[in-house]
Predict the 3D structure of the following.
Amino acid sequence: MDNLPSPALELTPPEISAWRQGSDGPGRDTPDYVQSFDSGRPGPSVVVSALVHGNELCGAIALDRLLRSGLRPEAGRLSLAFVNVAAFERFSPAAPHAARFLDEDFNRLWAPAILDGPRQSQELARARRLRPLFDAADLLLDIHSMSTTTEPLILAGPSDKGLDLAVALGRPATIVRDAGHASGPRLRDYGDFVDPRSPRNALLVECGQHFAAASAEVACDVTLRFLATVGSISARTAAARGNLQTRAPQAPRVIEVTDCVTAASDRFAFVQPFRGLDVMPRAGSLIAVDDGRRIVTPYDDCALVMPVERPRAGATAVRLGRRCT
Ligand SMILES: [Zn+2]
């Protein structure tokens, strides 16, 4: 990841040390860098997470901004979590992609067999520490960004309930229905979040390019929309803190992921620099070569979801999707 071209850094890593001490104060077992507030009124337990990937600054900026503004839930409990802070603390403008994780991808650990298993890593230690927070969450918004300059999108997971919640937000307009990665389950796919019989629900938002100023604005906007939609704050509070009035809801564009292309070698290379959400009109179009293996699109009007410029062997290179609406 370090050998990607250096992008323009429009965002500055926020100073988050003020949020290290859990907000419940001494004596409560709140993990570091989790700020949790109980409204004292009935309502959902909501978690908004940032820095699951340490180089994805927009979510940290959004949470820092909301905390500094004194945002509190008006119903239920709200927890704002800075997740992989150890990786974030390694962030360097000289190698801005390198802080994604320390030992392994935090967002591929979310199955009991992994969390309860014998493996050890810095990310697993943090995941085990934060697991009770996510176990207790009725609703989760997990904020991310992308390596490519792709428009914002929501990864709604495989079930109708994820799609319904994504549509209810009103923005971002592009919603991807997907089942995740071969290399391990994401936080948004943990436990009940993907069980269609459970009311518990999660969304992952990709706010734009990692270091683009616009990504931080999207992260703030989506967070306020999410909190108002699930009833943690009122629509009036959300409107007062953001510019939701000027960002009208958009008609959703839903893409269903049908295929996940996993790199078989470190020599995986796309045949051209795709931006993400590119649509290939003809089935059989060559999109990449992986150590001699030709990767072609399986059907007409195939969308390329989140291409990774230089994936490692075993990692997702791109997902292929079909437009549903
Ligand atoms: Zn991410």
About this structure: The longest strand covers residues 253-262. Residues 54 and 88 are 4 Å apart (CA to CA). Residues 52-53, 56, 144 surround zinc ion (CB under 6 Å). The first helix runs from residue 57 to 68.
